[in-house]
Amino acid sequence: MHAVSATDAGVEVILEALIFDVDGTLADTEEVHRRAFNRAFRMHALDWHWNGELYGELLGVTGGRERMHHYIDRLSLSAPQRETLRGHVRQIHETKTQVYTELIALGAVALRSGIRRLLIEARAAGVRLAIASTTTLANVESLLGAVLGPSALRWFDVIVTGNAVRHKKPAPDIYQLALADLGLPPTQAIAFEDSAIGVEAAKAAALFTVATPSTWTRAQDFSAADLVLPSLADPEHPLDPRDQLRIGGRWLGLEQLTRIARMTVPQIAEAARARSC
Fold first, then answer.
1. Is the pTM of this model over 0.85?
2. Do the domain assignments include residue 3?
């Protein structure tokens, strides 16, 4: 067990779990999602095409079905046409999920730098792993199986996906449910995100949050995150000297996380208590 104590605000900080977003955080999957959406649109005889610029905008809406509903609302349609398309969203999204899982199985993506290393380090230290993602369980299962192997699902004590909560990110619901399933207070876990919306959700759940912006999110505002890095890094792809100096290591591991958490988590807990008063 990796444990760190802190008394700055009367809070004992014990790192018990790491909670990961999936798309963009574990792997840079959004381009594969975009391709899957476009293929699904063609399979349903729709003339829609989400190019990179449009898809980047649509990523401001969490959840694939929600994204399509938002897109339909932007189109110049009659009310009957709009309602007809809305009625097909679930089926289109099911097709998209099937296409996505096929692309993932073909090796379309790889883990981001440092992810495998940190997961293995956490497991060896007895720190539990969890997932809090607005994507579908099928997408999570296909990605984990493809990039970590068939036993990867068992690495995670808790997996919470979008259909398990009423309000998706940036609402804190998915992180609050993950913490409840872990049986932990937010002071004993750290969240990992790649988007400003995800950071907002994790911070609203009073979690120390590490942001590693992805290709699709680098231009977003990550000022709310407790730590922002280009990646978790690893021995083959270390952080640049400036980031190494900031975290006290060539890559982000449990040692660096617990040291930074010792300085930061008590303040997060105090701020959360002040908001609840």
1. yes
2. no
Assess whether 21 and 35 both reside in one domain: no
Contact 143, 62 (CB under 8 A): no
We report the CATH number of the domain holding residue 68 as 1.10.150.240
Q: In what side-by-side order are the strands of the sheet with 128-132?
A: 158-160, 128-132, 17-20, 189-193, 208-211, 227-228
Radius of gyration of the chain, Cα coordinates, nearest whole angstrom: 19
| CATH assignment at residue 224 | 3.40.50.1000
Task: Write out pLDDT tens, residues 102-152.
Answer: 999 999 999 999 999 999 999 999 999 999 999 999 999 999 999 999 999
From residue 188, how far is each of 86, 207, 209 by CA, in Å? Answer: 41, 9, 12
Residues annotated as part of the active site: 21, 23
């700055």: which residue's tokens? 8
Q: Please choose, from the candidates 90, 96, 119, the residue with its C-alpha nearest in 3D space to the C-alpha of residue 22.
A: 119
